[in-house]
Amino acid sequence: MGQAAQNLRDLLSLARMLRRFAIERSHDNHHVLFISAAMALEARAHALATTPQAAAMELERANALHAPVDRLV
Question: Could you tell me if 12 and 42 are in contact, meaning their C-beta atoms sit under 8 angstroms apart?
Fold first, then answer.
């Protein structure tokens, strides 16, 4: 449970930081990117918070299995 709570705090902290960057950098073209990334992180945190623990662990596992991998050639 501790790890899941820390993950939620980290996601929401990063989303808050991205929203602050969007406000501070509203003069350039990146504020839309910051806001959309913050919204995606908040949606992810909400999904993790509302799913049961076993389902959340399976969701994290599935996402890790399908995550892109950088390969050195």
Answer: yes
**Buried/exposed 16-55: b ≥16 CB within 10 Å, e otherwise:** eebbebbeeeeeeeebeebbebbeebbebbeebeeeeeee
- Closest CA relative to residue 62, chosen from 48, 49, 72, 50: 48
pTM confidence score: 0.63
Query: Domain segments of the chain: what residues?
Result: 2-65
**Local confidence pLDDT in tens for the 73 residues of the chain:** 467 778 888 989 999 999 998 888 777 788 888 899 999 999 988 887 887 766 767 777 787 777 676 676 5
